Amino acid sequence: MNEKDIQAIQLLLATPKNISIIPHRSPDGDAMGSTLGLYHFLLKLNHKPTVIAPNDFPEFLAWMPASESVLVYENDREGTTKVLKEAELVFVLDFNALHRTGEMENVLNKLQVPFVMIDHHQEPDGFATYTYSDIKFGSTCEMIYNFISFLGKKELIDKTIATCIYTGILTDSGSFRFPKTTGTTHRIIAELIDLGVENSEIPTLLFDNNSYERLQLLGQALQNMKVLPQYKTAYITLSQKELDHYNYVKGDTEGIVNYGLTIKGITFAVIFIEHSDEKIIKISFRSQGSFDVNQFARQYFNGGGHINAAGGKSQLSLQETVAKFEQILTQTTIQ
User: Fold this and answer.
1) Residue 254 belongs to a domain with what CATH number?
2) Residue 107: pLDDT above 80?
3) Model-level pTM?
């Protein structure tokens, strides 16, 4: 982040303000960790921050400090719109295009206040007044740690803020296994642990609190997996009927796509999930090595993300979407 923007933000934060903090739609651990971490930091600066999520976050993140204070736009459009209109400053974290907030985009587009974007995805839109965007980072939470340091306020990071930041780094790094996990990442993690982060408990809260239905849904997903070794690809489908059968709740399909990459010889893994209420098929793409799923998602499925992790969507039926995908594979080179 350049020095001029840092100084401008320091000036903005010098006096108490109503501040809205926005994660992307269907917020994950990094989105919630970064927004809540910033929320607790701004409280220490005597601001009045409010985290407003476009829709509900997964239940497995509900233990995070102050998660109960998060407002959900889809649950109270009128109330959250009022809060947004009263904001004097808006932070958008872990996304770089306003359409990632769904219907909330219509409200955000009309706000005449400074926006600060902090994000690690490719090809950011130019809507923000101040932008800290860098694809070298594996998580927005690592960038939040840096952002607080840039402001000269690192000493304000306490156990609560550290817990939020740790959670986002842990989840977006694949438990520190993904390539963008650097020595600096681990040094930050060490500092967070020294501040009191319960590093042995957080993975349990995130990954080991499965319901019986969630495990049954995982079993169904693995049964549905199709492997295409000629394309180094594995994909999974889950229909609305299957989600309903296993009493699906938000977050139950988190991480399932990664099972495809555990198969020897597979470079590209995909999951297609039918959401009848939204009339779309939600798609998650994962890859290993140099195959760029960000470009794949942008080109074919109205999505995007990172080189090795991206999302997309289709308004075709589940069967038509899979047929389209298989046809695209015949024209795609996967190393």
Assistant:
1) 3.10.310.30
2) yes
3) 0.89
Residues 167 and 221 in one domain: no
CA neighbor of 313 nearest in space, from 286, 285, 282: 282
Share of the chain above pLDDT 90, in %: 90
How far does CA 219 lie from the centroid of its chain?
25
Residue pair 139/167 in contact by the 8 Å Cβ criterion: no
Answer yes or no: do 173 and 238 share one domain: no
Tens of pLDDT, residue by residue over 212-255, are 999 999 999 999 999 999 999 999 999 999 999 999 998 899 99
Burial string for 244-261 (b: 16+ CB within 10 Å, else e) reads eebebbebbbbbbbebbe
Specify the DSSP class assigned to residue 240: H
